Each structure stands twice: as structure tokens, then as C-alpha cells.
Amino acid sequence: MDLKRTWAISRKELIHIRRDPISLLQIILLPVVLLLLYGYALTFDIKNVTLAVYDQERSQLSEDFINRFRGTDYFRIERYTQDYGELKRLILERKVQVGLMLPYDFSWSYQTGKTAKGQAVVDGTDSNTANIVLGYIQAVTAGYNQKLLEQRLTEKGSGRGQMPVDAQTRFWFNEDLESRNYIVPGLIAVIMTVVGALLTALTVVREVERGSMEGLMATPLKRTELLLGKLGPYFIIGMFDMAIVMTMGQFLFQVPLRGSVLLLIGLSAIFLIATLGQGLLISVTSENQLQAFQMAMLTTFLPSFLLSGFVFSIYLMPLPLQIISYIVPARYLVTISKGIYLKGLGMGYLWPSAVMLAGSATFFVVMAIKKFVKKIR
To answer: Can you name the residues that pair with 54 across neighbouring β-strands?
Structure first.
């Protein structure tokens, strides 16, 4: 392979990119827009859940229990109601998300040694949100139960009212359980997949549609020189986009980066070669630009979003989908990115994913070259 001829193709491609400033601006803005949309819109942190309260008893005990909800960031008491029908109407009209009803014998049940019962009605229209809100309610109730049990033990003369078992929970790596801390690192893989595949999916088929491919093939250029020459400029642009995403994640979203920046950049570069190679393979096997664009979105964006572990845990998927996920390169970058960002892992733990990325990059680039040769004969 002649590096001078490869550089000549890269220079030609750079000139085309420079002469199309609108497309270049779109390439740069695309990762910014995607990161802002997913970083802010895609979140599992539910706060300020609107709450309506129907307190039949209005005692000190029931008010203490209600104050438990008022004292958290997860609930906001919207109003007090006078009857159960109004509580149901507020939920039906979606003016509140949760209705809390405490019966008239709430204090009496506790004082007589029985279980004080209440009812929480949760809007289950969105099942995921409802399950999260239900967990919040159970956590508030468990905390209040612990307080009452300690008081009861104290009243019975058991000393300081200590609990029989004191279970303390500690979260590692994402101590505050902030969604953005694991969404943003995963977004790096999704954004680089979309940008990388779309950049190269149109590059060869565009030359064919314009009729300039025959002129290129009449030159002494080899197929490898032509494809690698086209890949080079887009690799630079893709790494620039990655730098933008990492900078925004660090300073805008305040995502902790506990591992090696150089390791993350190096492994991301291998992943970018894999996605660019996949885009080249799509380009040389497509008949027109529309078909190439559709194939790129179908075979890169959707698998990287759904099967990479970016949002949905792979281990909770059906076995066939778990097997399919092994051929999705974004799966390995998501593992690498989250491991470096949140756990500070090094190559000693990440080398299996790095090997799979290197294999994917080699496979897609080689297949693109072979398919291109077959197409022009």
C-alpha cells in the first residue's frame, strides 16, 4: 500500500468536507444534541412526585407519618382532600401521581399493638415510573417503622430501644444513584456508533451515484488505499466528536471519571475504527444513498441502543437476545466506558472487551475491502 496515494484520497475527502460546511456543522452538532437530549431526558431519577393526602384521623401519629413524605425530595404534597372520592378524582385527572389514605383508627391500631394500616394509590399508567414510586413509598414506610419500633422497645423498658438487626446499605461506584452517571458513559458508545456509521455509510455509494468512481478506479489506486484514504478524515472527525462528548460529560453533567483518560481514548479509537468499517461495508454493498442510510440506522443505532447494555441490562434479556448482543461492538465499549468512568478499571479487567473490539474492527474493515473488490469486477 502506497501511503502517498492513501494520503491523496484523504486530502481529497477533507476538501469535500471543507466545501460542505453545513454537513460538517451537522456532524459536530449531532453528538452535542444527542448528549443533551439523552443526558437530560433519559433519566430514572424521579423526584417531586405529586401527592394527595386523605387523613381521616388527623392525629399526631398520622401527621408524623405524613411529614416523612414531606421531608424527602421525592414527594411533594399537592393538597389534602376531604373524602376518598376526591382522592380518586385527582388521580384519574392526573393532577397527582399518588394518593395517600390514612384511616380513622390509624393511631388506635398502633397503640393497641396492632399493625396500623394505610393505603397508597399509585397511578400505574406508566409501569416503570409506578414501580419506582412504589419503592420510594416502601422506603419511607420502612424508615418510619424503624422509628416506631425503637420507641416501642424504649417504652417497654428495653434500654435504648436498639433494633435486633441493624442493616446498613452502601452503594459502590454510583453512591448517589444518579442516572446520568451511568447514562452518559453509555452514551459515548451510542453517539460514536451513530456518528461513525453515518459518516462512512454514504461515502462510497455517493461516489458511485455521482459517477466519479470510474475516474478513481482508472488511477493506479488500490482498493485498500481508496477505502482507508476515505476512512482517515472521518476517523479524525469521530475522535473530535468523542472529545466533545467527554468534555460535556465532565463539565456539564459532572460525571466522575475515575480511570485512565488515555485508556478510554485508545479503546474508543479502536471502537471507532470498527464502526467506520461497518459503515464502509454498508456503503460498498448498497445501491444508493437512501438504502445506505436506512441500513446504517437499522444495523448500528438500534442494536447499540437496545442490545449494548446502555439502558437495558443484558443479563435480564431473553437468552437469544443475549447471544445476539455479542456481535454488537457497542456492547464492549459500554462495558469499557462504564468500567473506566465509574469503577476506575484498568486493562487488567477490560482486556476481553478490548480484544473483541479489535476483532470487530479487523473484521469490518477486511470485509469492506473484500466486498468492494467483488463489486467493481
So the answer is: 101
List the one residue out of 308, 301, 362, 312 whose CA is nearest residue 332: 308
Q: What is the dihedral of CA 160, 164, 167, 168, to 10 degrees?
A: 20
If phi > 0 it is left, if psi is from -120 to 50 it is alpha, else beta; for residue 255 that is beta
3-state secondary structure of 338: helix
pLDDT score recorded for residue 169: 60
3-state secondary structure 48-112: CEEEEEEECCCCHHHHHHHHHHHCCCCEEEEEECCCHHHHHHHHHCCCCCEEEEECCCHHHHHHC
Spatial CA neighbour of 325 closest among 112, 296, 334: 334
Averaged over 115-120, what is the pLDDT? 86
Grid coordinates representing 107? 393511631
SS3 190: helix
317 three-state secondary structure? coil
Task: Report yes or no: 166 and 273 within 8 Å, Cβ to Cβ.
Answer: no
State the DSSP H helix or E strand holding residue 355, giving kind and residue range, or none if neither: helix 347-376
Mean pLDDT of the chain: 84
- Say how far apart CA 173 and CA 89 lie, in whole Å: 42
Name the CATH superfamily, with its identifier, for domain 49-155: abc type-2 transporter like domain (3.40.1710.10)
Residue spans of the domains in the chain: they are 3-43+178-376, 49-155
Amino acid present at 294: Q
Rounded distance, CA 215 to CA 211, Å? 8
For the stretch 62-73, pLDDT in tens is 899 999 998 888
Which whole-number Å values give the CA distances from 110 to 61, 248, 323, 363, in the listed order? 9, 52, 53, 68
For residues 307 and 321, is the Cβ–Cβ distance under 8 A? yes
CA dihedral 103, 108, 110, 111 (to 10 degrees): 170
Output the pLDDT for position 159. Answer: 46
pLDDT digits (tens, 9 = 90+) for 148-188: 877 777 766 544 445 454 555 667 787 777 778 888 888 88
d(CA 180, CA 193): 19
